[in-house]
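FORM 12-B: Structure-to-Sequence Request
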């Protein structure tokens, strides 16, 4: 017996206290309705309605069942709705991988934007490299990942691609820091601090290839497992790194400069399993692409005289770290990284 269906019939009769009206409300004839009520009474082992005297009244057992039946029916409806929303990707959780070097501001915007589009889907972000995410996706431990290209997508579906144009992070004592932009060939004689190759082999190899193609052959390549290590090495003075600008804002002793002609172009997109995909994965991929595009505007043109806009919007409190006055002839120690010294 379909108990929930029979409880619906019971509630219709209990609310109408008339089998004919209840049958009309249920779009059925009266005899089948009466049979279903008798079946329900057999199920509970007691009469639910008193049919004597030409009137229909609830028995004490029927009165108790009314509230229970309403709660049962409501809970079943709620569960069906929840399951349907989950099947459509509009409920539950979406486990998403994100590169560890993603700026906190970008993570905040991404989380907010996705929540605005999918308020019933909880976004569980996991910081992991491209290589690690590929393994997690393959094992089913992630629903979607944000990957650096080129990547062996295998059985993954790739979302819209966002283009990231990095600049160079220099020691602010470097003569190159006086320029508004730097060519890759100008970096000759410097070592390069780069993410470990195993994190994203394709992006690593393409980055070095672009450096060689444009006249920069690093004296050495040192892997940086995190942003703090990268900044420490660059601040020491003999090495440079590539970044979109956010990392350089953390350290007063370095500056960020755009690369002339945008010789480096990085591509990023979300990816998810082609089979058994989470329904919300494509929407997350669209949000990721939009947020990354907005967070990484095109590099300034070679003639641009102004510093990158994010340094203007987010000035650094240099006077907190360095004194306001410096010896004559020396570069001011509180010059913002996004502006030309002097």
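FORM 12-B RESPONSE
SEQUENCE OUT:
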């Amino acid at each position: 017996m379909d108990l929930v269906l029979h409880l619906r019939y019971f509630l219709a009769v209990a609310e109408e206290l008339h089998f004919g009206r209840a049958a009309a409300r249920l779009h059925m004839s009266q005899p089948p309705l009466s049979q279903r009520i008798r079946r329900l009474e057999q199920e509970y082992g007691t009469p639910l309605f008193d049919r004597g005297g030409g009137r229909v009244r609830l028995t004490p057992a029927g009165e108790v069942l009314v509230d229970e039946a309403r709660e049962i029916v409501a809970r079943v409806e709620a569960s069906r709705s929840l399951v349907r929303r989950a099947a459509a990707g509009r409920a539950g959780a979406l486990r998403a991988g994100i590169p560890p070097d993603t700026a906190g501001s970008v993570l905040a915007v991404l989380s907010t934007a996705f929540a605005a589009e999918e308020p019933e889907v909880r976004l569980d972000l996991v910081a992991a490299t491209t290589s690690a995410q590929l393994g997690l996706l393959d094992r089913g431990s992630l629903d979607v990942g944000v990957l650096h290209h080129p990547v062996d997508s295998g059985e993954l579906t790739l979302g819209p691609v966002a283009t990231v144009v990095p600049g160079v992070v220099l020691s602010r004592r470097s003569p190159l820091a006086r320029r508004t932009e730097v060519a890759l060939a100008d970096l000759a004689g410097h070592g390069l601090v780069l993410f470990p190759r195993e994190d994203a082999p394709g992006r690593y190899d393409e980055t070095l290839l672009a450096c060689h193609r444009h006249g920069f052959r690093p004296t050495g390549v040192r892997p940086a497992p995190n942003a703090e290590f990268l900044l420490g090495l660059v601040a020491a003075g003999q090495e440079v790194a590539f970044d979109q600008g956010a990392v350089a804002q953390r350290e007063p002793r370095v500056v960020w400069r755009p690369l002339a002609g945008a010789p480096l172009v990085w591509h990023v997109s979300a990816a998810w399993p082609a089979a058994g995909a989470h329904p919300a994965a494509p929407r997350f991929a669209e949000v990721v692409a939009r947020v990354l595009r907005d967070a990484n505007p095109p590099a300034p043109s070679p003639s641009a005289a102004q510093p990158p806009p994010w340094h203007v919007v987010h000035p650094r409190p240099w006077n907190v770290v360095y004194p306001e006055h410096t010896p004559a002839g020396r570069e001011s120690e509180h010059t913002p990284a996004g502006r030309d010294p002097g």
